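To make this tangible, we now present a fold written out as C-alpha cells:
***
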Amino acid sequence: MDTVESIRMAVKTLTANKLRSSLTMLGMIIGNASVIAVIGIGQGAQRLAAEQFEALGPNVLFVVPGTRQARNRTFEIPKTLVLADAEAIAAQVPSVKGVAPQLQSQLTITYRGRNITNLVVGTTPQFLPVRSFDVARGRFITNLDIERNNQVVILGPDLATSLFRGANPIGQTIRIKNVAFNVIGVMRPKGAFLGSNQDDVAYVPISTMANRVVGRTSPYGLELTFISVSAQNPESIGAAVFQISNLLRQRHKITNEDDFAVDTQKDILSIVGTITGALTLMLAAIAGISLLVGGIGIMNIMLVSVTERTQEIGLRKAIGASQQDILVQFMIEAVILSAAGGLIGTLIGSGGVLLVAAITPLKATIAPVAVALAVGVSGGIGLFFGVVPARQAAQLDPIVALRSN
C-alpha cells in the first residue's frame, strides 16, 4: 500500500471519530499554544526592558551604596554614599559629563483632604540632563532652591492628575509629610521603568528633602539613595566606571570590600535579561509538560483504537496487507493527530502573542524558533508515542484478529 493511500485511510478513520480525535489533540493544542505564547511574551518583556533602559539616556551609570551582595542580605539601603561623594565625582572625574545625586523615600502627599503615598525624590538641577527628563509646565529645581532649602516641588504628570483632578497645579500648595510645598512645575510624561511609574513622582530640592522632610541620618554628611552619572560618550563609560571606583575607594579609605557599586545600563540589563530569560525558560518547560501529556493521550487513544479495530486489522492482513502497511497506517494516524494539534495550538498561541502586544506595553512578537520547536516537538512526540500502539497493531495474528468479537 502506498503512502498516499495510508494517509487517506488515516484521515478517514480519524474524521469518523471527530470528538475523540479533538479531545486527543487537546493536549498538543494547549502545549503548543502555551510554549509559543510564553516565549513570545518573555522576549517582549526583554525588549521592553531594553527600550526603557535606552530611554534613561545612552551613557547613564548608577552609583549605589553597598555591594550587590550586601543589598541582598538586608532590606535597608546602606548609608555609604553622601552628597560630598557626588560633588567629588562631578569635580574630579574627567570622563563624567553630569552628576545627579538622589535622596528618595515613599511619603504621604496631601492636598485638600486627598492623601496619596508616593515616591518623593530629592535631587539637583542636573537631574534633567543626566536622566533625560523634561519639564512640561513651570520650572525645575535651581541651585538657589537648594542653597535656601526652598520648599518647592515639581510633580510628575500622573501625580498632578491624581491630586488636582485636571486643575492647574502651578502655584498651589501641597503637604509632604506635613511640610508645606509650593508646586512650581509639572514634568513631561516619561513612562514606566521596570514596573515603576516615573510619572507618579514628586521632585524637591535635595537639601530640603534632607533637612525638612526625612532628616539626616548619616554622620558623614547628607546621605544619598544613589547617584546618577552620565558619561561623556559611550566610549568613556568604562573609563568612568574605573575612575569613579578609584575615587570613592580613596574617599572611603577602602582596603578590602567596596561599600558601593557602579552599575552600567549594560550590567543592569544583563541582570534583567538573565531573570526574564530564566523565568521564560521555566514557564516554557512547564508548558512543555502538556506536550508530554498530550503524547501520552495519543498513545492511550491509539491503543484503544487498536483494540476496537482488531477485526479490521485481521481482515486487512488476510487480504494481503503486510505488517509494514499496518505499522505505517497507525503511525500516520498518530502523527496527524499531533501535527494537527500542533498547528491549531500554534495559531492560538500566535493569536495570544499578538493580542498581548496590542493591549499591553510588552513588545511581544511571534518567535519563529518557538513555532518551529513547538510544531517539531509535537510531531516528534506523536511519532514517538505512536510507535507502541502501531507495533501492537502490526503484530496481531490475522486469524486470532478475525476470530475476536
In short: The chain has a mean pLDDT of 80. The longest strand covers residues 96-111. DSSP finds 14 helices and twelve strands in the chain. The radius of gyration is 33 Å.
